[in-house]
Specification:
Layout: E1 3-9, H1 15-31, E2 36-41, H2 49-58, E3 63-68, H3 75-91, E4 96-99, H4 109-115
Parallel strand pairs: 1-2, 1-3, 3-4
Helix pairs in contact: 2-3
Length: 117
């Protein structure tokens, strides 16, 4: 595996929330079997982003995309996650780690909202 994707949610103490994130990851995995797909939580639950990045590297990833499931670019997206990625990049200098845009930045979001009506 050369490429990995980490899907990050805010985190919750509710097991159902973690199970839902795992379900999302499985949907992505089925559509992109060439990717190593991992999950992480910003807070309140494990695995953390640091732990997930370390797992990707251990499994052979040389390129990691951190995909936050956040709608708007608040503090976690503009400060916390970039700082975690920077720290992980220093620990793993041969690995390219980058963060994707907030889910709310995708133009198709309006269509998705309308499909739920």
């Amino acid at each position: 595996m050369a490429r990995a994707l980490i899907i990050v949610d805010h985190g919750s103490r509710r097991p159902e929330a973690h199970a839902h994130l795992l379900w999302i990851a499985e949907q992505v995995r089925q559509r992109a079997p060439e990717l190593g797909v991992y999950v992480a939580h910003m807070e309140l639950a494990e695995p953390s982003i640091d732990t997930a990045i370390d797992s990707c590297v251990k499994d052979g990833a040389s390129e990691i995309q951190v995909h936050p499931l956040f709608l708007v670019p608040g503090h976690h997206l503009t400060q916390d996650i970039p700082a975690l990625i920077q720290r992980s990049s220093e620990r793993h200098p041969g690995v390219r780690i980058r963060m994707t845009d907030a889910v709310g930045s995708v133009a198709d979001l309006a269509d998705l909202i309308l499909r739920t009506l």
